[in-house]
Amino acid sequence: MAEYDKQALIRAALEVRSNAYAPYSGFYVGAALLSESGRIYTGVNVENSSFPVGTCAERSAFAAAISSGERKFVAVCITGEKKDNPMLGAKYCMPCGMCRQFMTEFCDKDFEIISAASEEDYQVNKLGSLMPGAFMLFGAF
Ligand code: THU
Asked: For 87-105, what is each residue's pLDDT tens digit?
């Protein structure tokens, strides 16, 4: 895998997080996705009165990237914060099961998921280890 600037990706996720729309959970999530073309796409969680309608930050970032014609990706950074109570919610925001499945559509096993608390404090996991044996119609994961 090509080297890339993890801090720049984390910074982008932290910056966009303030735009999250999360009046129901109070859990604000920002995501920044690096495409193979070198561009960074960002997204936030967008909640809804009808709870299941809401979407996660990672999927928002992917939707923006796919809409711009991107199809190949290197890494995503996810960062979450519970505004009213910083002690709640995981320090390192992990992708939910639906997002893991979503990412397997476009990313291979080596795709990196950075769960960041800050630019200096983060965990890196590969998609292959978070989503073993993913379901796919085309090819194998
Ligand atoms: N959420 C994300 O945006 N990304 C994740 O990886 C985990 C969960 C959002 C969904 C919902 O708006 C809020 O966090 C609480 O579950």
From this structure: 666 789 999 999 999 999 9
DSSP class of residue 49 equals: S
Sheet architecture: strand order including 27-35 = 40-44, 27-35, 73-82, 112-116, 122-126
CB atoms within 10 A of CB 67: 9
Of the residues 58, 70, 81, 112, which is catalytic? 58
Contact, 115 vs 100, CB < 8 A? no
pTM of the prediction?
0.94
Does the Cβ of 16 fall within 6 Å of ligand 1?
Answer: no
Task: Return the residue whose CA atom lies nearest to atom 10 of ligand 1.
Answer: 56
